[in-house]
Amino acid sequence: MTTATKPSTRKAWANAIAQPAQEFPLTPLPLLSGNIPEGLRGTLYRNGPARLERGGIRVGHWFDGDGAILGVHFSDAGASGVYRYVQSEGYQEEAKANQLLYGNYGMTAPGPIWNQWFKPIKNAANTSVLALPDKLLALWEGGKPHALDLQTLETWGLDNLSGLSDGLHYSAHPKRDAQTGEIFNFGVSPGRNATLNIYKSDSTGKILQKAAVQLDGIPMVHDFVLAGQYLVFFVPPVRVNVLPLLTGMSSYSDALEWQPNLGTQFLVFDRETLSLVSRGETEPWYQWHFANGYVDTSGSVIVDVVRYEDFQTNQYLKEVATGKTRTPAKSTLWQIHLNPAISQVTSIQEVLDRHCEFPVVPQHLVGQASPQTYLSVHRQGVEISQEQFGAIARFDAKTDTLEEADLGENRYPSEPIYAPDALNPEQGWVLTVVYDGNTDTSEVWILNSDRLSEQPACRLGLPSVIPPSFHGTWKPA
């Protein structure tokens, strides 16, 4: 599905983050092509860093940008969209001062050195979303979530989910069991040796059960896997060098060190009791995101992960904030077989040798075997160190095939989100937000999940440019 455009050597993605994104109120979205499927009723939510500068000063890392939420509501009357910044205390204070006041993942607090010691880190609320029956959570793994109105995206404030005391964080990658409604998540609390806190919630998000396990050093833990009766964590060999961080001489990002000699550690927890049932070590790699996990008939845990050979990805993501990238950081899809009974990884195999990220499976298959994984990929022939993802794809594990939706030159889709068709259980749709660098506009595209390479079933126009976002979700009506 390639659309012809004028050839260009310019990296158009940088225009999407050149200026702070502009909010817009609830607005009917024009139909650019096709029609909204009759069985697609609900809301697409997306979250990502939308402001990367304040008062003429640029942030230090892509992860530092202020979070803004896009909501696209689909009803019988058509589609409407709303886009709003999360009104965190830090955002409001910096907006009033028109300058950056806080440190964050990739930057230290401006001003005198003692600001690094006494000024808190700003909750950027910029990574993901969790749609609950009565509210939307804007997630950021270094603190508590912010609660928002599901329809208008008005910020209500920080939410402790009836269980997050001070010092407990709530990560950006919760896992929801579609059959039970249970929600699992975690947070890492710093210390000489960090603590991994695990949470089990009911379908409303209320935390019902917690557990804690000490980790080695202060590692980087971004995601985990729900696999059948287990919760599985892989802890890459990245550790914080504490001294420069505590003295204020380094940001958190710059204090992270790649230490491959440590290997990748794994921890397996029972989802019912949250007790640790297996712990061990395997070869070193780094990952941001897992696709899915399940338990096979032999009792082995099967995990699909987007794997990097080292931590160069962090440098690439730092460069994104500047609009110019040069660091190659290739990641490919791998499958891991883990036997929790003997605390051993029994096999590791690359299943897709194609640079990819943001893997997702249909929500109803999270924690179960899913033959299809949807991914963001690069267009064929581009220089991956300079570009962002320009296509989305579906990898079929049964047939070992990849079908792509190539959007054409200078068009950049967000993470693909699977939405089931409410009228036909055999039908599904893939939703993505596209930045078109040829026209400096953003659109919502709806594609047939089984025929990605065909033209989109529907394209909707958005009132303003939506910068590249990290994660989203689909909430059925």
Descriptive report:
With 477 residues, the chain is mainly β. It has one domain (12-476): YVTN repeat-like/Quinoprotein amine dehydrogenase (Methylamine Dehydrogenase, Chain H). The protein has five helices and 35 strands. It has helices spanning 89-97, 114-118, 242-246, 252-255, 312-320; strands spanning 24-28, 31-34, 42-51, 53-54, 57-58, 66-75, 78-85, 128-131, 136-139, 146-148, 155-158, 175-176, 183-189, 195-201, 207-214, 225-227, 230-235, 238-240, 256-258, 264-270, 276-282, 286-295, 301-308, 331-339, 344-352, 356-360, 372-377, 391-396, 401-406, 411-413, 417-420, 428-436, 441-448, 458-461, 471-476. Strands 2, 30, 31, 32, 33 and 34 form a six-stranded antiparallel sheet that branches. The protein has a five-stranded antiparallel sheet with strand order 1-7-6-3-35, with no helix packed on it. A four-stranded antiparallel sheet has the order 8-9-10-11, with no helix packed on it. The longest helix is centred in the first third of the chain and has 9 residues, at 89-97. It is globular, with a radius of gyration of 21 Å. It starts with 23 loop residues before the first strand and ends with a strand. Residues 2-10 have low confidence and may be disordered.
